[in-house]
Amino acid sequence: MSGPGAALRSLFRPAEQATYEKVFGTVYVGLMTNVLLAITCAPLLAALAVVRDPLASWPFFLALSSLCAPALAGAFNCFAALGDGSITVFRTFWDGYRRGVRALALWAAGAVAVSVLALDAVVVARTAWGPALAPFFATAAALVVAVVVASLVLLAEPRRERPRLRDLVRPSLYLVARRWYLVAVSLAVLVLAVAVILVKPVIGVLVLCSPLLYVAWATIRFIVAPAFGKP
Q: How far is Cα 30 from Cα 87, in angstroms, rounded to an integer?
């Protein structure tokens, strides 16, 4: 049958097909990114599954957490490519992972800084100044985590040159402190992702990891956009 109805259906059919392809492509990238995150972080996930009390062995897990740096860079690179319309996962993740290896020292420094702040907070909590200094330790630890994640976002951003780590940390520190209210949202999402993985490892890693990381990445990327020449 021909007529106005058929003309309208033929007009909207390509748009619907493009929408379906975009949705399926996004789901595919999310699921495959979850799988690659699980593979690259397998030693850490296996240790968490075996050890009953991770807090009692926190130095071991602190060192093992360095695997998250290149893995997050790979995931962030996939998210950036998805925004540009690419649904290639393996090569994109590997490219970001290789760049993220350079951030191992940055991740280790941030982990040590957070650990020192946590230990100081425990010691100070036993004194009369404990309640007054607690916000300082919490804010300082949150700032360290935010700067490390923001540096990973900048490092995973596609570019020709290879910036030095200090050239990533300096703008990250300034921009994170400037828009602290958005950083608080990103950190809350990251804490939620970690909590879900610890409580439900399979669901957290294979289902919810990418959506939560994407929200955190998108917010941080908006915060540090001036660092790579975007408004």
A: 10
Q: Going residue by residue through the chain (231 aa), what tens digit of pLDDT does each one get?
A: 455 555 545 544 555 566 767 778 788 888 999 999 999 988 888 888 788 777 777 778 888 888 889 999 999 999 988 877 778 889 999 988 988 888 888 888 888 899 888 888 888 877 777 777 788 888 999 999 999 999 999 888 876 567 777 888 888 999 999 998 999 999 999 999 888 887 877 777 878 888 999 999 999 999 998 877 655
Say how many Å lie between the first and final Cα of the chain, rounded.
50
> What are the sequence ranges of the domains in the chain?
4-228
The torsion defined by the Cα of 189, 190, 196 and 202, in degrees rounded to 10, comes to 120
Q: Look up residue 28 and give its amino acid.
A: Y
Separation of alpha carbons 63 and 175, rounded Å: 28
Q: What is the DSSP string of 118-169?
A: HHHHHHHTTSTTHHHHHHHHHHHHHHHHHHHHHHHHHHHS--SS---HHHHH
- Tell me how far apart the alpha carbons of residues 43 and 65 are, in angstroms, rounded to a whole number: 9
At position 99, the amino acid (one-letter code) is R
